[in-house]
Design a protein that fits this description.
Strand content: 35-45%
Distance between the termini: 38 Å
Number of domains: 2
Strand order of the largest sheet: 2-1-3-4
Order of helices and strands: EEEEEEEEEEE
Radius of gyration: 19 Å
Shape: elongated
């Protein structure tokens, strides 16, 4: 982040929606900075070890003049940007296991239903997320398949992940059109 014009005192806050409630509270701040310079602000985002694995939202806010009291504050001068992020356990940044299960998702795009077929679905759960990273569906696999009714979903791109005990073993997206 940065500003190419005259320097102003700008306060930066980065929030990570750790409890997946769509709100950005003071206990979800993962980075802050205070700057009176024209150069970009850099730093490191610290993700707590207790953060849930999977998709969530990250909010970056820059406000003129004073720090933000929380990530949902309305202000006159500044900028707020939201990002979908995927938190993984792997310290190498590789989120897919080499032996990740094969998942078949069809039809693509879907209008009424999306079918998920998984070979060896023992102890597996499907979790679907909307564009904000909120969980909108969760169900355990029975018989290796799940049918997700999407007729009531808004058109758009949705994410899914397959959870096995202690890890996310597969992930992807599906498109809903009406």
């Amino acid at each position: 982040m940065g500003y190419a014009g005259p320097t102003y005192r700008e306060f930066y806050s980065v929030y990570l929606d750790l409890d997946l409630d769509g709100e950005f509270t003071t206990d979800e701040v993962v980075f802050t900075a205070d700057s009176i310079q024209a150069a970009p602000v850099t730093g490191m985002v610290i993700v707590p070890a207790s953060a849930p694995v999977g998709s969530t939202r990250l909010r970056v806010a820059m406000k003129y003049g004073s720090a933000l009291p929380n990530g949902c504050t309305v202000y006159s001068f500044g900028e707020t940007e939201d990002y979908c992020v995927n938190l993984v356990i792997s310290p190498s940044g590789i989120s897919e296991a080499a032996n990740a299960p094969s998942v078949r998702v069809f039809p693509q795009p879907a209008s009424e239903q999306v079918h998920f077929q998984l070979a060896n679905a023992a102890a597996a759960e499907l979790v679907a997320l909307d564009a904000t990273g909120r969980q909108i569906f969760a169900q355990r696999f029975t018989g290796g398949s799940i049918t997700l009714p999407v007729g009531g979903f808004a058109p758009g791109l949705y994410a899914y992940h397959i959870n096995r005990p202690g890890a996310v073993s597969a992930r992807g997206v599906f498109l809903v059109v009406h």
